[in-house]
Design a protein that fits this description.
Length: 343
């Protein structure tokens, strides 16, 4: 749905600073109340739908792209519209509308009230509900969304995101994780058939980027798998990949791989998780379930395998994370049952 610039200007009081929630090289994102179409409705770029569209008023996120004259920015704008109108999944952010007017390129999304995952990682010491089970759920949400992007069932085309990182993962009011920022994304079939300047440039973020992709620029779904492996390490360690303590040691992935090979990966696990305690009638259990942690760690490091061909598919990653989640939840469930039985 096209949304008028006048409506956006009114909602944000001409893009006033008090409405801005994040700024970066791409532009700024504003939080405002705006009329928009219902989430279930999907619009098509370049087409006008000749029927009544149900509207509602609510809080949205408005991304204003800073350089509308930059060719790459313009291609990213159209790519994001095309990608998000093709994807309908609970773990992918919903695009509600767009505006291309007055020299501006603006995208309107559903608002994720708990912000981005990188913000969560940096602030979770203040979150009493943070736990290993909670982090597993966030990780599994992202994996399911990414697995969906990598499928080609029915009319769906395989999509390579190219910029999976914690700042591009958004958390809604229930902490459900949703993949966002599709500005660098590409339909794999289109990239294979038509090598455009946009598809051939190496895109991504240092610290998350697949080393093999950065060397040969060969676009494959496996580059997303590598980036997801880095994201898993962030969740495991409770910190962001661009923390200076990692960048000074050639990155989080390399440092974690060294620990994994030496069998000392537990030294990198967030100490808040290690100190997580479940009390039972007979004893107390400290830290995450060991089998759950091992299952999580093994699949994370398979994602980070140097050779793209040796990395697992996201479908396999989802199954392994579901196993890790089951092991963790089962441990806690057994403890609760014991408490109830011996009260």
């Amino acid at each position: 749905m096209r949304i008028r610039l006048d409506d956006i200007v009114t909602a944000t009081e001409n893009f006033a600073g008090k409405y801005c929630i994040v700024s970066g090289g791409f532009g700024s994102v504003y939080k405002a109340e705006l009329d928009h179409v219902d989430k279930a409705y999907r619009f098509a770029i370049g087409k006008e739908i000749e029927r009544e569209v149900p509207k509602k008023r609510g809080i949205v996120a408005i991304k204003c792209i800073i350089d509308s004259e930059d060719e790459i920015a313009e291609q990213g704008f159209y790519a994001e519209i095309k990608m998000l109108t093709s994807c309908k999944h609970s773990n992918i952010i919903t695009l509600l509308g767009f505006c291309e007017e007055g020299g501006k390129m603006i995208l309107i999304y559903e608002y994720a009230s708990n912000g981005s995952l990188n913000y969560y990682l940096q602030k979770m010491n203040n979150n009493p509900d943070d736990s290993w089970a909670h982090r597993l759920k966030i990780c599994l949400d992202v994996a399911k969304g990414l697995s969906f992007l990598h499928t080609n069932e029915g009319e769906l085309q395989e999509i390579v995101h190219r910029d999976i990182k914690s700042s591009n993962i958004l958390l809604d009011e229930n902490f459900k994780a949703k993949i966002g920022d599709f500005g660098l994304s590409i339909f794999l079939s289109v990239s294979e058939e038509h090598h455009t300047p946009y598809s051939s440039i190496i895109a991504g973020t240092p610290g998350y980027m697949d080393p093999q992709y950065s060397k040969n620029a060969k676009l494959k779904k496996e580059l997303d798998v590598y980036s997801f492996g880095v994201l898993m390490l962030e969740i495991l360690c409770g910190t962001v990949a661009y923390d200076p303590k990692f960048t000074n040691n050639k990155g989080l992935a390399l440092l974690a791989r060294q620990h994994f090979n030496k069998g000392t990966i537990k030294e990198m696990v967030d100490h808040k998780i290690i100190k997580e305690i479940t009390e039972t009638l007979f004893t107390s259990v400290e830290g995450p379930d060991q089998e759950s942690l091992d299952t999580f760690s093994k699949i994370a490091f398979k994602c980070l395998t140097e050779a793209q061909v040796e990395r697992p598919t996201m479908e396999i990653v989802v199954k392994e994370l579901e196993k890790a989640q089951y092991l963790q939840v089962s441990l806690r469930l057994i403890h609760r049952i014991l408490i109830c039985l011996f009260k």
